[in-house]
Amino acid sequence: MEKRALILANGLFDSVFAKTTHGLIRGPSRYEILGVIDPEHAGQDAGAVLDGYERGIRFYRSMTDALQHLSATPTHCVVGVATVGGVLPSALKEDLFVAASAGLTLVNGLHQLLSDDAELAKVAKGGIIDLRKPRPASELRFWTGEILSVPTPRIAVLGMDCAIGKRTTAMLMQKSFLEQGIATEVIYTGQTGWLQGMKYGFIFDATLNDFVSGELERAIVQCYQETKPDVILLEGQSALRNPAGPAGSEFICSAQASGVIFQHAPARIHFEDFEHLDCMLPPLAEEIELIRLLGSEVWGVSLFTRGLGPAQAAKIATELEAKHQIPVIRSLEDGVGRLVTTIRERLNL
Amino acid sequence: MEKRALILANGLFDSVFAKTTHGLIRGPSRYEILGVIDPEHAGQDAGAVLDGYERGIRFYRSMTDALQHLSATPTHCVVGVATVGGVLPSALKEDLFVAASAGLTLVNGLHQLLSDDAELAKVAKGGIIDLRKPRPASELRFWTGEILSVPTPRIAVLGMDCAIGKRTTAMLMQKSFLEQGIATEVIYTGQTGWLQGMKYGFIFDATLNDFVSGELERAIVQCYQETKPDVILLEGQSALRNPAGPAGSEFICSAQASGVIFQHAPARIHFEDFEHLDCMLPPLAEEIELIRLLGSEVWGVSLFTRGLGPAQAAKIATELEAKHQIPVIRSLEDGVGRLVTTIRERLNL
Predict the structure, then answer these.
(1) Which A residues, 268 through 297, put their C-beta within 8 Å of a C-beta on chain B?
(2) Residues in contact with B262: Cβ distance below 8 Å, sequence separation at least 6, in sequence order
(3) Of the candidates B145, B246, B276, which has its C-beta nearest A277's C-beta?
(4) How high is the pLDDT of residue B82?
(5) Where residue A85 falls among pLDDT bands split at 50, 70, 90?
(6) For residue range B56-85, what is the model confidence (pLDDT) as tens digits?
(7) Minimal CA separation from A263 to chain B, in Å
């Protein structure tokens, strides 16, 4: 791999705000990851801190520290954190200037565009890639219905909330399908998917609202025309009833998903970031019914087990499976084999 | 009124694409309407053609024709048509150049921005107002939950489809509330609402997706803080299951609407503009259940009666009312009195 990146996660690595960093460490990644900047963990292995598996990716105190001690030369510096409203944490600014001055290409998925910072843009001879830079209406496509003639079945990975593992489950499912010889593509809808090297998709939340359905359709149609896969997985965004930005019906109504894999977090009580408000996650049974009414069907559930002990998580999985009569698994612990099996059965793949 | 406008509806007046024009003729309007450009109806009265009531607004063959024959001097030229994807019909171009050359301010609600046309922008000394010009993320607000502390109840006017009368019903309800001494504001979510002079709102479909809920919240909070109304009506957009852009859950989940008035079109079979596809409107009962699951409740139904005879429409209203046990009225024919009464009862207003 020719492109080598350092990731900025300054002080946020242990939070869901660093889910982009987590995804890139877990892999795959568009860039070889040389290290992660987070002074809290300086000297440790990022994989070991993430999930107990060492991956030879070290934490560094600062960008200066990393550039001094790395043997390989990085080509890119990736902002690895997402924040509410997409504003750049000030802790990252200094490191970005150091990276830009060293000639690295800056890659940023926040709504706050680095290219809008005149000082930074002046220094960044290696360029700036602002993934969430909005595209004008003239470059966007309205929904046409062309999707209705795409024969490849679409499976949407939706969820109860943000930052709950939808993309990870989609990627694990793709890996499992591929191992079984089923040609599978994932349509990315967030910046992390792009950073992980997915080819087809768009940045859902940085798209003008009127064109979200059309861009989703365009990505699927293009994917179908160029790769003719056996199945297309759709990375969901947000949640159907997230008050900060309800989403998901696009995947059912516009992309005409045949089935849904639903990501659930039994231990989470409130919508992410709104623990101080009266904004509770709805019951799973209601979400399943909502998806049915919207026009699709939940074929399996994947549990995000943070906050649950292994025995507790296993018990919940067993209970939910008995209640809803569909596979309920823990993606990271059990793997997604049973979800893939049920999809193959239902689609005769 | 100091601002006087001519509206461009060239050749599209009789279609739903001219709903902006229809709204401005029906009133209210930010501008005094001097005339409508549409060669098909040249010489006729626009109100008479719209709904049988003359309003002293004449149709003209062209902008040149209008400027020659009008006694009053127009100050603004409004693009009165909306099209799929928001592209400017070429028939309007010549008239826009004539208007711009005459010093009129051009007002445009299409996604295609007039200010992007260098030739037109050069000629338009009176300026260009592009209502759908996207605002950058830095000017937009993310949802915070502040809405939860706004005591004024919100009522959303949602519907089965686009171009079905949601805004018109909301405005008729506001008028009726005001006549009964109930202070009422309507939050606009489309360009026509702004053109009709509504003070609080935003252009839903030209907003970056991540900020739709926040901008809706901001408009409501600002409206509450500045006017302290008794009730706030929310102009819905699109439809919950419109494949070209499902929308509506924002009004329930993000704006926390207490109740919903649902605009229904019994004679419409397919989603607007997709008559050639297998995209049928869902049954009313399902939409009512969907709204319940999303967290609100349908308190009344307003019928869009195009395609139905008066007796047929009345029969359908009676049947639906018996079935759903809520008022079912025809806004334009019956007025919205019964909807207002039921909202007052439910809210103890």
Answers:
(1) 274, 276-279, 286, 289-290, 293-295
(2) B157, B158, B159, B160, B284, B287, B288, B291, B298, B300, B301, B302
(3) B145
(4) 81
(5) low
(6) 999 999 999 999 999 999 999 999 998 766
(7) 18
